[in-house]
Write a structure and sequence with these properties.
The strands form two sheets. This protein has a four-stranded antiparallel sheet with strand order 1-2-6-3. Strands 4-5 form a two-stranded antiparallel sheet. It has 95 residues and is α+β, with helices and mostly antiparallel strands. The protein has a single domain, classed as Alpha-Beta Plaits (2-Layer Sandwich), CATH 3.30.70.330. It is built from four helices and six strands, in the order αβαβαββββα. 15% of the residues are buried.
Length: 95
């Protein structure tokens, strides 16, 4: 498996992210926690053959969850919001 597949874990398809790529061509991805912005940019460009203009990252914090008397937590994860050049699109989100 290539480095690009390890860097980009999965697309984040939610109602909020759908509105963002519909209006502003911003795509959200779940990425490796130690991936840097240049690594994310090169991985997106290599995987989808598009031109990336901006990369913003954030860490989604862990959440506490209870199941009856059992208590645990979901892990924290890193999200990247990627803006593409005008005219480019990623088919995972469009189709």
């Amino acid at each position: 498996m290539s480095d690009a597949h390890r860097t980009i874990v999965a697309p984040v398809v939610t109602e909020k992210s759908s509105a963002a790529y519909g209006a502003r061509k911003e795509y959200a991805f779940r990425v490796h926690p130690h991936a840097s912005k240049p690594q994310i940019r090169s991985a997106i460009e290599a995987l989808f053959q598009v031109t990336v203009t901006d990369v913003r990252t954030l860490t989604v914090r862990a959440k506490r969850r209870t199941y009856g008397r059992y208590e645990g937590r979901r892990p924290s994860w890193k999200k990247a919001i990627v803006t593409l050049k005008e005219g480019d699109a990623i088919q995972v989100f469009e189709g």
